[in-house]
Amino acid sequence: MELEIDREVCAIITRRQPIAVDLRLLMALSKATANLERAGDEAVKIACMARSMRSHSCSQELPTSGLRLSGELASEQLSKSLDALARMDASSALNSLAEDLAIKTAIDGFIRSMISHMASDSRSIPAGLDLLFAAKAIERIGAHASNLAEFTVYAAKGLDVRHASAAGRLQHAALPPQGLLSEEKNAEPAVLTRR
Predict the structure, then answer these.
(1) Which of 14, 63, 85, 95 is disulfide-compatible with 152, CB 3.0–4.6 A?
(2) What is the DSSP string of 11-29?
(3) What's the CATH code, domain 2-194?
(4) Residue 77 pLDDT exceeds 70
(5) With contact defined as beta carbons under 8 Å apart, do 127 and 62 qualify?
């Protein structure tokens, strides 16, 4: 699917020669497809690990509340990022980016609780390792959702916020969308770069 979308994007660029917002949108959508595919791959990993968990006898005793919370947060962030992309809403995309920290905090808490549980009960190590890999997959889904939000900001406002701090993202959130000619006249922000 990614290759097919890339071919279509190239065909549109060749035939239509889009500029400014249109070109940024095409580039963002092209990158978004790869991130959606990777997020789907991570979801498949989680499903496979959940299936293998049925064979572990101690799987009911494991502390999974942090994993469940992080999964819900990542799913919500992905949904909000996709909604922001569909509406080209940079403000909602920036709000979605702010949720990344909550996912990481929940995963860190889950990892700490799993390590202490596995240290106290060695029989839980195989199941615990599956859950730790699932936690990493959830973290990657959150990262892909963040990428989608960053692409949305880029497409809507022409700001590249991929390596900006959270404060830098919010500082420039109110900037109006810029056309190609006005982008060339304006100086680039110190934290964010215009493309």
Answers:
(1) 85
(2) HHHHHH---HHHHHHHHHH
(3) 1.20.58.220
(4) yes
(5) yes
Residue 24, pLDDT score? 84
15: number of CA atoms within 13 Å, CB side?
6
Of 101, 84, 77, 74, nearest to 151 (Cα)? 84
Determine the Cα–Cα distance for residues 142 and 101; give it in Å rounded to an integer: 10
Indicate the average pLDDT of the chain: 81
Q: Give the Cα separation of 92 and 150 in Å (integer).
A: 11
Place of tokens 């403000």: 91
At 159, phi and psi to the nearest 5? -105, 130
Task: Tell if the pTM clears 0.90, that is, is over it.
Answer: no
pLDDT tens for 28-52 read: 888 898 899 999 999 999 998 888 8
